[in-house]
Amino acid sequence: MLFLNPAFHDYLAILKGARNGFVYGVKVRFPHAVVMSILFGRGDVTSRLKVIYRATKQHALNLAKFVSKKANGGKERSADSFIAGVIGGFLVFGERTAVNEQIVLYVVSRVIASFIPRAGSYSASPQSPRAMSTVKPIPPNPRYFALFAAISWGAVMWLFKERGETIQPGMFNSMTYLYRDSEIWTNLKTLLWHNKP
Question: What pairs with residue 118 in β-bridges?
Answer without folding.
Answer: 140
